[in-house]
C-alpha cells in the first residue's frame, strides 16, 4: 500500500485523559478515533492489526474443533429473564424497547441466545459434543469507560460455547479451549498467566482468567514464584504466617478482663491505632452489611480488606451492600463504633485473619467507646471462621508454603464450566442412549479481541512508538523513499516495492512528499518490524535497513534484500546482521 493514499492520521500530541500507553499510542499512530466515551472507530491500520488477531483466533478455534457462526446482537428480554440474569446482570446490560413496547438487550454475552438455539436444534446424544463460536461486537454500559480499548462500552469479543453429554466430556472441552487460549496468546506475543478466577454474573465453576501482565492492569494477580499457583485477587487464597502468636501483643497467654474505654471521636482503624498506640493487626473491625436484605456483621483484622466475592460465596448471597445508618441503629449499635459483643439477632461472619486473637480492640456499640482486651475464645464463643479477606502482602502459598507475590494484569480471556446452569433454566435437553432426557452440559469461553490489541501494545512499545510483534503488525515492512522527486530513489523504491509484494510480504511504502525527519518519526511511531530506506545511495543500489525492535541499522545491496527478509522473518524478527 502506498502511504500517500492511506488514512494514517498520526499525531504529535494526544488528549490528556489518555492515561494508558496503548491508548496514547493508538491515537498518535492513527489506529483508532473516539466517537463517544468508550466507543471507538478502527482506522485502517488498527483494523489490520485487529484482523490479524481474529485470524489467529479463528485458526486455533478451528484447530480445536470449534465451528464458527454468528448470532444477533439484539436479544429479547424474555431469554434473559428465563435464565434469571435480567435483574442479576445489573446496569451494565444495555436495555431498550422497540416501537411495540417489547423489551430487548444489546448483547453483553450470548449464553441465553446460544442455549436457546441449541435447545431447538440438538435433541439426541448422537449430535454431541459440539462447540460453537463467534467473533462479534458486544455492548456493556460501563460506569467508567477508560484506558481506550481496555475498558469500553462497545468491544469485539470471541465467545465460544461447548455442549456435552457428560461431565468428563465437559472436562475435555474445557481443556481443549484452555490449551487453544495458551496458543492464541503466545502467538500474539503476549506475556500472560492463566489464573483461578470467580465466574461472576455468568456463573459456573472451575473458571480461569488469562491475564496479560501490565502495570496499567485493573486486576491484581496473586501468584507463587515457587510453584504454578496463580489466582486473581477475588479468588486467591493464602495462609497467614504465625497467626495467633503474632497477634498477642504480650507474647504470652495472659489476657486481661474486658475494659470499656472512652474514645471520643475515634472511629477509624488509623485513629484507633494512634489512640491506643497499637498495630492495626490488633484491632478487629466490624463491617455492617446487608446480604440479600439480611443484616450481617463481618469481623476482619484491622489491616485486612473484605473480599466481597468470597463473602457472597460463603453465605450464598447474590447482593451485598453496606448497611445503612438506620439499619445499624436498629441492631442496637452506632455507626463508627460497631462491635460483635452484645449484638443480638444478627449473623456474624468471622474472617480467618482474627482466629486466636487475644487482647484485641473492638467497638463497644456505644458512641465514643471501645472494648479492650477482647479474647475471642472467651468473649465470643462459638464463632465459626471463614476466609472472606483479600490476600495481603506477606501471606504464604497454601500449596507450597512460600511467600506469595502480586502483579497487575489485564484480563484477556475467561473460560468457564457452566454445567447445566443455562440448559436447565432454558430447557436445553437431549435423549441419552437409553432414551432418558438429560440437560446438556455446557462450557463457555471468551476472548476480548479488541482488548488483546491494546494489551499487546501495553507490552510492546518504547519512547518512539509501538513495537509490533511480527504476527500482528499491520504491515511487515515499511519502505521509505527519502526524496520522492529524485528519479533514482523512486525507481529503486518501485522495484523493491514490487519484488517484496511478489514475494508475499505486506509493505507500506511511504511515498509522501514530506521531510525525512517526519517520515522517520512516523515510521518509529507505527513500529513495523523492518524499515527499508531508499536514499542518497540509490544510484549505487545501496539501501539502509532498520530493525524496529532491536534498533539495529545497516546497509545492504538491493539485490540482497529478499534473502535478508527471508532470514529476518524466519528468525522471528531477530537477525545476526552486523
Question: Can you walk me through this structure?
Answer:
The protein has three domains: 19-237 and 406-457, BirA Bifunctional Protein, domain 2, CATH 3.30.930.10; 243-386, YbaK protein (Alpha-Beta Complex); 477-570, Rossmann fold (3-Layer(aba) Sandwich). The longest helix has 21 residues, at 167-187. The strands form eight sheets. Strands 3, 7, 8, 9, 10, 11, 12, 23 and 26 form a nine-stranded mixed beta sheet that branches. Strands 17-15-16-18-21 form a five-stranded mixed beta sheet. A hairpin with a 5-residue loop joins strand 30 (542-547) and strand 31. With 578 residues, it is of the alpha+beta class.
Give a nutshell description of this structure:
GO terms for molecular function: aminoacyl-tRNA deacylase activity; ATP binding; catalytic activity, acting on a protein; proline-tRNA ligase activity; transferase activity. The protein is built from 16 helices and 31 strands.
**How many domains, in number, for the residues?**
3
Instruction: Give me the count of strands.
Output: 31
Secondary-structure arrangement, i.e. CATH architecture of the largest domain: 2-Layer Sandwich
Please report the number of helical segments.
16
Could you list the spans in which at least 5 consecutive residues all have pLDDT below 50? 244-251
Q: Could you say what the CATH topology of the largest domain is called?
A: BirA Bifunctional Protein, domain 2
Quote the distance from N terminus to C terminus. Answer: 30 Å
The value of Rg in angstroms is 30 Å
**Backbone shape:** globular
CATH superfamily of the largest domain: Bira Bifunctional Protein, Domain 2
The mean pLDDT is 93
Helical fraction: 25-40%
CATH class of the largest domain: Alpha Beta
* Helix-strand category: alpha+beta
